[in-house]
User: Which sequence fits this backbone?
């Protein structure tokens, strides 16, 4: 039987990885990821998790060790943040292209410079095009559940792609929350042992990672693109099964008070909780505002977004990173592509908020919605703005 | 007795009578004519056998053996990137170790985990990953196939390129001698990690090479073999003299052969009458621009390095009587 505990989210994440019974953990310390790997090394040291803990000399080697171990047929885990992610990104592209079901928790943190240990989504956006499946947690329970879900999706032979579970640095990773931790037996029932399709084995030699000449490279990439497109079905299936096993229901896009909403705030991660409080306040004043939170970022949840945004008059897209194209934040660009492709024409304003640990408050959300309404009313050309900039 | 000496106490070497006929790295690959690097890899694999998993750095040996849909590999092989072969093979080893311990796989005999890279992939971009894997003590063999430059990208200098050599990024000119720095002593850097087994070898002495690789595979923990891999394309000499060039590297003490077993340095060839370095340099057009003065400078450096090696190997006679002065042959 599972148990309900009060636990720091990072510790709970490590406990979840132990319940998943991984074989190899390779990690390098970086704030704010450290508590996850510290606790994992403790679990290995005291025998609660039978795994090889490989204390590598860099994140680049962390991902390289995971690639080697996964290619050998082992279940692998790593975790990082920010600069650590930036250092390993070369191998992240290779991990997905080699179709290795590695799971990584990225404790989201701003990218340098200036160096900042605090939360935003710059690292997640750096991972946008790496070919990994990406989910984004709002709270500790979701971190635990998305980690368990991640392995079920990654190791499914219809998928065989790595999965990145995002959680906000400090705001989620370092808080103590009530969390339901399932038992090992319950996790095992949901998550069958990893059976690799191909592995490095002297009894059955294979060549992995060969040269892709021009005659074959496009085809390999096409296959990889199909894999991430097809993964959506398995992701949904795995969430349905999750609900049957654990009673918690997950969808690619979480909505709050969207039923009759004219305005939707669209975002990812833990600031959703603040946004919901702002929405309650605005609803009391008679404003028909709702929230759409992306739990699934890769593959992009197009159908779900369309159904949420179809009836809406205006959308405030909150980006927690800059795209530096001088035009739009990265999340907003993708949302607008969905809207354009489906001939939907709500008024969209893009707010860049909460960079490098800057708080995003209830008042900020109320103000963002008010400004959105004003801009829409005076038909201002759609654009973006960084909020909370000190003059 | 150290772990390596213990593991090697009943070591039986290869002789001309018992060289394995297996070819885990098959012919038909696309290496250049006269390539000594592929020969080194072939001999190493023959010595290790088929119960092996190989991780390759990006480089010549990766390119010439694996253009999809062809492969020259009859044993499991993985290539991930340039700088991480040591990290990748340590991951494979960790995976196997965990899965065997947990009963997920049945390991009947020891699998050899082999990582390899060129000098660029080992001494430069891959040095950090190698150092990490050595320090962590994974049970693996790493082979550096040293052809003294980035040959795969077109002969650019690395930290293993010898002083004076012409490469495409160390061209000699009015203001340049060619490579302006001395070759990085990578085996010594590896020895400093205090791993059980380190050796240098070259395919010019194939039995010596195979025996060293075999020993490296037998010792528990990390083992490292540094192989001088003559590259006619990059060193600019006729392909038919490649093995002679390698022999001359040893005969001139430019590339001494030795082992370091449990920290004990052992000279493989004592070379009492070393040939002048000039004999080696003049075989290769990459050194064609060097003046007599520069050649003397190189000779003095090689002499000093040899003396230091003799000292480490305990071969220096009391009072420094061992003489290795060389008189020019011409």
Assistant:
């Amino acid at each position: 039987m599972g148990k309900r505990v009060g636990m720091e989210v990072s510790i709970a994440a490590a406990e979840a990885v132990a319940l998943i019974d991984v074989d190899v953990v390779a990690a390098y310390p970086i704030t704010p990821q450290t508590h996850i790997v510290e606790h994992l090394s403790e679990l290995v040291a005291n025998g609660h998790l039978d795994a090889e803990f490989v204390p590598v000399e860099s994140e680049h080697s962390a991902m390289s060790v995971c690639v080697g171990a996964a290619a050998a047929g082992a279940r692998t885990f790593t975790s990082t943040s920010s600069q650590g992610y930036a250092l390993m990104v070369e191998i992240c592209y290779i991990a997905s292209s080699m179709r290795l079901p590695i799971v990584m928790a990225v404790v989201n943190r701003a990218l340098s410079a200036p160096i900042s240990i605090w939360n935003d989504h710059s690292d997640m956006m750096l991972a946008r095009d790496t070919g990994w499946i990406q989910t984004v947690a709002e709270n500790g329970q979701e971190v635990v559940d998305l980690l368990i879900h991640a392995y079920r999706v990654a190791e499914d032979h219809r998928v065989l792609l790595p999965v990145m579970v995002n959680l906000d640095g400090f705001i989620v990773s370092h808080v103590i929350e009530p969390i339901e931790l399932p038992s090992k037996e319950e996790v095992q029932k949901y998550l069958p042992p990893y059976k690799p399709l191909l592995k490095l084995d002297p009894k059955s030699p294979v060549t992995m990672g060969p040269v892709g000449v021009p005659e074959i490279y496009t085809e390999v990439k096409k296959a990889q693109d199909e894999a991430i497109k097809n993964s959506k079905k398995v992701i949904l299936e795995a969430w349905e099964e999750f609900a049957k096993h654990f009673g918690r229901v997950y969808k690619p896009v979480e909505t709050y008070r969207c039923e009759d909403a004219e305005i939707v705030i669209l975002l990812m991660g833990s600031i959703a909780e603040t946004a919901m409080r702002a929405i309650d306040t605005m609803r009391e004043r008679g404003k028909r505002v709702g929230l759409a939170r992306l739990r699934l970022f890769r593959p992009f949840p197009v159908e779900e977004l369309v159904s949420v945004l179809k009836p809406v008059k205006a959308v405030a897209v909150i980006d927690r990173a800059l795209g530096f194209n001088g035009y739009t934040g990265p999340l907003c660009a993708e949302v607008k592509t969905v809207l354009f492709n489906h001939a939907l024409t709500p008024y969209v304003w893009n707010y860049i908020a909460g960079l490098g640990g800057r708080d995003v408050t209830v008042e900020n959300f109320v103000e963002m919605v008010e400004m959105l309404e004003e801009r829409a009313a005076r038909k201002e050309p759609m654009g973006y703005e960084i909020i909370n900039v000190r003059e | 007795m150290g772990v390596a000496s213990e593991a090697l106490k009943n070591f039986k070497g290869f002789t001309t009578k018992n060289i394995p006929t297996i070819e885990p790295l098959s012919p038909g690959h696309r290496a250049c004519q006269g390539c000594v690097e592929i020969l080194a890899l072939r001999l190493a694999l023959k010595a290790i056998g088929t119960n092996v998993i190989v991780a390759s750095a990006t480089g010549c040996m990766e390119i010439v053996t694996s253009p999809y849909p062809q492969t020259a590999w009859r044993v499991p092989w993985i290539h991930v990137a340039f700088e991480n072969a040591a990290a990748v093979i340590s991951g494979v080893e960790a995976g196997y170790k965990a899965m065997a311990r947990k009963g997920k796989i049945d390991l009947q005999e020891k699998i050899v985990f082999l990582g390899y890279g060129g000098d660029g992939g080992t001494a430069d971009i891959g040095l950090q990953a190698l150092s990490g894997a050595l320090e962590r003590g994974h049970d693996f063999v790493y082979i550096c196939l040293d052809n003294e430059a980035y040959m795969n990208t077109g002969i650019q200098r690395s930290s293993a390129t010898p002083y004076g050599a012409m490469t495409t990024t160390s061209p000699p000119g009015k203001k340049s001698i060619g490579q302006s720095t001395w070759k990085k002593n990578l085996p010594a850097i590896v020895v400093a990690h205090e791993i059980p087994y380190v050796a240098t070898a070259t395919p010019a002495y194939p039995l010596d090479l195979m025996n060293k690789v075999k020993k490296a595979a037998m010792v528990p923990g990390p083992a490292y073999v540094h192989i001088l891999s003559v590259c006619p394309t990059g060193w600019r000499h006729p392909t038919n003299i490649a093995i002679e060039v390698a022999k001359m590297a040893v005969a001139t003490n430019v590339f001494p052969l030795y082992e370091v077993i449990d920290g004990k340095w052992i000279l493989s060839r004592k070379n009492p009458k070393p040939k002048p370095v000039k004999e080696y340099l003049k075989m290769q057009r990459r050194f064609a621009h060097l003046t007599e003065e520069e050649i003397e400078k190189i000779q003095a450096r090689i002499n000093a390095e040899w003396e230091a090696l003799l000292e480490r190997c305990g071969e220096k006679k009391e009072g420094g009587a061992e003489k290795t002065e060389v008189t020019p042959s011409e």
About this structure: The domain at 3-320 of chain B is CATH 3.40.50.970 (Rossmann fold). Chain B touches chain A through 49 residues (CB under 8 Å). The mean pLDDT of chain B is 95. The first strand of chain B starts at residue 52 and ends at 56.
